[in-house]
Design goal:
It is built from no helices and 22 strands. It is an all-beta fold.
């Protein structure tokens, strides 16, 4: 079972954030990233990033307006809350009006931690977690007078924690319904170590009731990865993620606990995923609302 919150009694630098993505059958998508951060001087702040189909907002809050509980998991920032049952939003600031509530159905959880043995590495720059690969949604939100109805929608939740985002990484995520529903998350990143380092990969594909786990700790090979996508192979399995179209928008990312780096995410990228077992194509999915990020600070 994924732990939702790790940051109790941490010293700086440190960050921890949660990525809540919501999409509906009409193509409307909204992601929210509540987070807290602590710099080397142990100064604590909180933030909320909001990503719509065509705009992003950054809201910073003092630590006094942040409360996090572990059981049940809930993040309270200002007057808004994020938790296992859903989200309640009451935001009116910085050119953003966002009100309403969404409720989540049962989470689709992974059988084991996506980080595998990497979770035991001391001093990891950044660790990743998957809270739900997919769940049903209900409820409505109002974003700057636009009504977003997430009835019959699908949600996805993941989390990151550590000191800094990797200097170079690729991340993509997609969940879809229909007669052949599926979900996948893939991340590739440069991993610094005290001596040297390596490029690591974690990936989970859920399809037809089965999880396919492709990861460095299971022998995956990264054949290519760039701003246009990736090809990875593990044994007889081969996964392609090809970016066809993107709408990149700026977000902030942590550097030694401070949200000083600008990255770009496409919340509604058009990505083609193809997954083979040997010569057999298990599925091909053209996603109009995939999440896609590629960043290199070198």
């Amino acid at each position: 079972m994924t732990c939702f919150f790790h940051g109790t009694n941490r010293t700086g630098p440190y960050f921890e954030g949660w990525y809540f993505k919501h999409q509906n059958p009409q193509g409307q998508t909204l992601a929210l990233i509540p987070a807290f951060h602590m710099d080397r001087e142990r100064r604590r702040t909180a933030s909320l990033q909001v990503i719509s189909n065509n705009q992003t907002w950054w809201l910073e809050y003092p630590a006094s307006q942040l409360q996090i509980s572990r059981q049940p998991f809930q993040v309270q920032i200002g007057q808004s809350s994020f938790g296992e049952q859903g989200i309640d939003l009451h935001i009116q600031r910085g050119g953003l009006s966002l009100q309403g509530a969404l409720r989540c159905g049962a989470f689709t959880v992974l059988r084991s931690d996506i980080m595998g043995p990497f979770r035991f590495f001391a001093g990891m720059q950044c660790s990743h977690g998957v809270i739900s690969m997919g769940h049903s949604l209900s409820g409505t939100l109002e974003l700057n007078s636009e009504r977003l109805d997430f009835s019959d929608g699908i949600g996805y939740i993941e989390t990151d924690r550590g000191r800094s985002f990797p200097s170079k990484y690729l991340w993509t995520q997609c969940v879809w319904g229909g007669p052949e529903p599926g979900s996948l998350m893939l991340a590739i990143a440069t991993i610094p170590l005290a001596v040297g380092g390596f490029t690591g990969c974690i990936c989970s594909v859920l399809y037809e009731g089965q999880e396919y786990r492709l990861a460095t700790y299971r022998g995956v090979r990264i054949e290519t990865w760039s701003s246009s996508g990736t090809v990875i192979r593990q044994g007889k399995y081969r996964l392609e993620a090809e970016l066809l179209n993107e709408r990149r928008q700026p977000l902030r990312a942590p550097v030694e606990g401070r949200m000083e780096r600008t990255i770009h995410e496409s919340l509604c990228a058009e990505v083609r995923y193809r997954f083979w077992h040997g010569d057999h194509l298990l599925f091909q999915h053209m996603a109009p609302n995939a999440s896609f990020e590629y960043s290199s600070s070198n």
